Fold this protein.
Amino acid sequence: MTNVIPESAPTEGTARPAVRSWDEFTQLREVIVGDVANARLPRMSDVSAWIACYPTLSEKELQEVSEGAFPPQVIEETREDLATLISTLRDLGVTVHQPAAPDHAKVFSSPDWTSDGYLSYCPRDITMVLGSAIIETPSPMRARYFELLGGMRELFQEYMLRGATWLSAPKPRLADDLFSLDDDGLPLLGESEPVFDAANVLRIGRDVIYQVSRSGNELGLRWLESTLRLFGDFRVHPVRGVYGYTHIDTTITLLRPGLVLLNPERLTEETMPACFRGWDILWSPPIRDVPAIVKRPLSAPWLGMNLLMVSPEVAIVDNDQPELIAAMEKKGITVLPHKLRHSRVLGGGFHCVTLDVVRDGGLEDYCG
């Protein structure tokens, strides 16, 4: 079932589109929030789980990871934090959906492999919204193969019946030959088929940024470019050699047209995407390292950059990052500090745990 928290009624004479989102920052009208129920770590003997969850850990270090269900404290406190987030979004007039997570402990298989499940905490990871289209992306992680079944699938079908386009990238085989090891014995993503997570992508109207990394390969970029041609004239900006591990939203955070938050440990003025030339650059202040309750959390401290723009003037930001909050307020952004106490443990901040479905912005040229 989908838990829907309705917004205030739309203005008379206006019709809310089922799905419409071209960017990361214009006024948010409708959003999906993740569900932490049944969240767990799959078996790390699966190289696709290793590369997705702990790409910087050696095989020896991987033995320190506790597989299976996350601690009850993590689940219960995260459920509370997500409920607070939902309440805030509702108070701001946003329609909120929280589809129920499937049973991720179930084991499933293909002709090539067997896996258990992962989590439904981060709906932005493997679903991309582009205009009126919902695109299921081909994640390189086997444990995510059936993640969208259940509440998410029901919601996508509802959107389709209301006029949205619903499509999926070719389901990847994810055979062993997609993966290899580098000279340090760490997992690498190959090029035998197109694979990428939606969280490798940022949308800026007619411009789309795609990060090539261990969660998105060059063939995934080619597939996305070929598909975007169906939607119109887009400029795709590959980001290579910047952050080779997983997703892009701890490296680049779009705040409003002409203002972007960048990670100074991963980018410079020379290496940042060319579409930001002429923009106001906010270089992130140092991010506070908030201790995690497990020895090996899924995310590094830079997850503190992972925030949600409710509008170009309002942001939801981790309340453990006062320096970042102050820097954003100096740029004229009203910050609503919130907590996600176990964001690093579960691998997702406020951008990760939300998937915007409707924003006011159109197919604008913000970078031309």
Remarks:
- The radius of gyration is 19 Å.
- Confidence is low (pLDDT under 50) at residues 1-13.
- The chain is about 20% helix and 25% strand.
